[in-house]
Structures are given as structure tokens and as C-alpha cells.
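Q: I have 205 residues here and want to know how they pack in 3D. Can you give me a structure?
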Amino acid sequence: MKNMPLRERKKYQTMANILDAFILSLKKNNFNDILIEDICNQISISKVTFFRYFSTKEEVLDYFVLRWCYQRSLEIFNKKYIGVAGLYHVFQSTAEIPNSERIFVALINYYSKLKDKPTFKELSKYERYIISNSTDDAVDIKLYSLKEILNYYLQEIENIDKSKLNVYLDHLVTLFYGVPFHVHIDMSGESLVNAYKRHLDIIFK
């Protein structure tokens, strides 16, 4: 994996730079106000280069979700968390992302306008290798979706009522992406970390 062609390495670095620039821009701007041209200027690439990797700026959000899901899939692969502890970690890892509130408002707005589910691009083996901190064993692992990640940890909870797993899953997905929830966070000023923890305590304690 270390001998990956320069072209593949440059591709990954450019896509990572574009994503980092968007996340940094979200500190002061709403997603809809961020211009592709401004992102290109920040990292010194042309718009032609941007469109070589992403058809729209919304695809950058898809790439963010894809990388996040792979990181959580790595944790499942390494059995780093079990049951309820895994669910708390999933939400905490989300809330601790820089500018997480703005990112998830952007995702909610984006997904709410889609008629069909977004078509995610697969991560290349080199991308997996870098994101996993240069772990060769991790490049071929199953990449779980958000629902699959949540369901995996739910299945591991001892004494949970299996007939209500779908109810729990729906609650967790709604908590993750729920518009009213994020509006409440915005209006109350409560941190996303505390808000997620408080709601998970209600569900599981």
C-alpha cells in the first residue's frame, strides 16, 4: 500500500483538502453560502480540479459521511466498543467534530430535498489505508451505513427487547438527524455533546 501511485495519493490529498476547507468555512458560513470558487481559492486549485472529484458541493457532504461511516466501521471491526457504550461513542464522536452543528444542519437540509437516496462513492483502498492510520488489515472491511452501525450496537445490548429493535433504531436515527432536535440546540445554546448524552440517557437509563 505504501507504493501506491503518486496519482492516487494526490487524488486523496486533494479530496481531503477540499473537505477540510469546507469544514473550516462552516465555522463562519452556512453551507448554502459557501461558494466552490472560494474553496478552490483557499487551497489553490482550479474549479476544473474540483469538478474532477466532486460534481457538486453537496457531494463533499457525501464524502464527509462516507469517511465518518468508515471510521465507525473500523471501530466495529476492532471491537473497540460494545452495546450501549458503542452508541454513546457514535453520538459523541459526531458532536466533537469541529463545526458539527453546522455540518448536520447542512446534511439535514441536503437530505430533505433529495427524492432518492444519495449514491455514495466507495472509498479507495488507499483512502481506507490512510484513514485507518496505515492499517493494511482494514482496507477490505465492511463499510457500514449509519443505520447498520446503530443496529450493530443495539444487537449487542444484553436484555434488550428484540421485538422493539426497530423502534429503538428509529429513535436513534431521529435523534441523529432530527430537524426539531437541531433547531432546539440552535435556540437553546446547549452543546451538541450534552444534548445527545441527555437524550441517550432518557432512552437507555
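Q: Anything worth noting?
A: The chain has one domain: 56-204. The chain has a mean pLDDT of 87.
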